[in-house]
Design the sequence.
DNA sequence: GTCTATAGTTGGATAGAC
DNA sequence: GTCTATCCAACTATAGAC
C-alpha cells in the first residue's frame, strides 16, 4: 500500500499522523495501531521507527513544544506606530487570544500533554520544557510590548511574565469548558490594565485622556 | 475473599477505590480490573455495580466535584477580628493555597478529569459542573473576604471571582510542573493586591500605614 | 440479589520475511 | 534497511452459578 520509505521520512510522517490523531481525538486515542492505520502502513512499521509507544509520545510532546516556539516567534512582529503601554499589552494579549481561539483542539491537547507528562516519570522533562518555552514566549511578548511603549517594569520581567502566563492558562482552560470567548477576551483586557500598572516608568507615550 | 455486600455499599467502596487509584496513578490507570483487584473483589462485581466503565468514571467525577463543594464550604469559616480588604483576601488565598499544596495528586486529577471530560461528549456536563462549583466557591470565598472588610466591589463579584479562579488555576498548574510553592504563594499575594484595588469602596478597616 | 467464570476485543511488541 | 505476519498481555463485558 504505502511505498517503501527511508526511516527518517517515515518517522516524520508517523509523527504528524500521531499529532493529527491526538489533536482530533485526544492523547488517549493515540495507539500504535491507530497511527499505523491512519498513516496507511502496517502495525510493525511504527515500532520500526519508534522503539516503543513512549518514544512516540515523547516525540509528539517535543514537536508540540517546538511548534509553540515557532508560533511564539512569529507573533512577535513589531507594529509601525509607537503605542502607550496599555495599548501595546492589549495588542499582545488580544493577538495571543486570537491564535488560541483558532486552535481549540491544539490547546486542549497541550493541557492533556502536561497532565500526561506529570504522571509519567520518563516524560517529566517534557512538562518542564513546555513551561520553560511558554515562559520565554511570555517574556518575549511582554518585553516587546513594554519596549514599544518605552516603559520600565517595577518588578522582574520574569515574574510579570509568569503571572501573565498563569492567567492566560487559567482563562484558556475555562474557555475550553464554557466556550465563552467574549468573557475570555474581557478577562485578558482586565489583566492588561493590571499589568500596565506594574511599572516604575510608564514610558513617553501616554494615552490621550 | 470479600464478604457479600449490598450493592449500594459495594458501589461506595468501589468508587472510593477508583478514586484512590486515580489520585495515585492517574485517570488512565483506572481500569475495571485494577479497581476490582485493589478492592479485593472479582472483576464482574464492578460491572454489577456500574453498568459500564463510563458510568464509573462519571460517578468519580461527580464525587470529586461534591468533595470540592464540601472543602470549599469548610474553608469559609469567619475569623474573630475584622481585617482590611487586602488582609482578608490574603487570608482567603493563602488558606486556599495551603489546602491545594496539601493535595497535589488530587489537584492533578482534577485537571485530568477536566481534559478527559472535554474529550468525551457523554461527560461534557461533568466539566461544566466542575467549573460551576468552583465558580460558586470562588464567589463565596471572595464575597466573605469583602464582607469581613466591609468593602464594595466596583465590578460584578462573579467576574472578580472568575478572574481569581482563572489565576489560581494557572498558578496551580504551573506549580504542579515546577514544584515551586514559594513562587506560587507570591503570585497569589500579588493577585490579592490587584483584587484589593478592584473596589469602589474599600470599607471601614484600613491597614495601618 | 450478589458474585464467578469465561468470552471476545483491542493493544503493545517482536521474530523473521523480503 | 524496510516491512509483514504473528504472538501475547490486558482490557471490557456478559452469561450464568450460587
Sequence:
Amino acid at each position: 500500500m504505502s511505498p517503501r520509505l527511508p526511516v527518517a521520512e517515515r518517522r516524520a510522517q508517523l509523527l504528524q499522523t500521531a499529532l493529527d490523531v491526538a489533536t482530533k481525538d485526544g492523547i488517549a486515542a493515540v495507539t500504535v495501531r491507530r497511527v499505523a492505520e491512519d498513516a496507511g502502513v502496517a502495525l510493525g512499521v511504527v515500532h520500526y521507527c519508534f522503539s516503543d509507544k513512549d518514544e512516540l509520545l515523547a516525540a509528539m510532546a517535543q514537536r508540540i513544544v517546538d511548534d509553540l516556539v515557532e508560533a511564539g516567534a512569529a507573533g512577535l512582529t513589531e507594529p509601525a506606530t509607537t503605542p502607550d503601554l496599555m495599548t501595546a499589552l492589549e495588542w499582545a494579549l488580544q493577538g495571543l487570544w486570537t491564535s488560541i481561539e483558532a486552535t481549540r483542539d491544539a490547546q486542549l491537547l497541550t493541557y492533556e500533554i502536561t497532565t500526561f507528562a506529570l504522571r509519567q516519570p520518563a516524560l517529566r522533562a517534557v512538562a518542564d520544557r513546555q513551561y520553560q518555552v511558554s515562559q520565554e514566549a511570555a517574556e518575549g511578548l511582554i518585553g516587546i510590548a513594554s519596549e514599544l511603549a518605552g516603559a520600565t517594569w517595577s518588578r522582574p520581567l520574569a515574574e510579570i511574565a509568569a503571572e501573565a502566563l498563569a492567567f492566560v492558562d487559567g482563562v484558556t482552560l475555562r474557555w475550553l469548558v464554557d466556550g465563552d470567548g467574549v468573557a475570555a477576551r474581557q478577562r485578558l483586557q482586565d489583566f492588561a490594565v493590571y499589568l500596565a500598572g506594574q511599572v516604575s516608568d510608564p514610558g513617553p507615550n501616554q494615552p490621550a485622556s
Summary: The radius of gyration of chain B is 20 Å. Chain B has nine helices and two strands. Chain B has a mean pLDDT of 92.
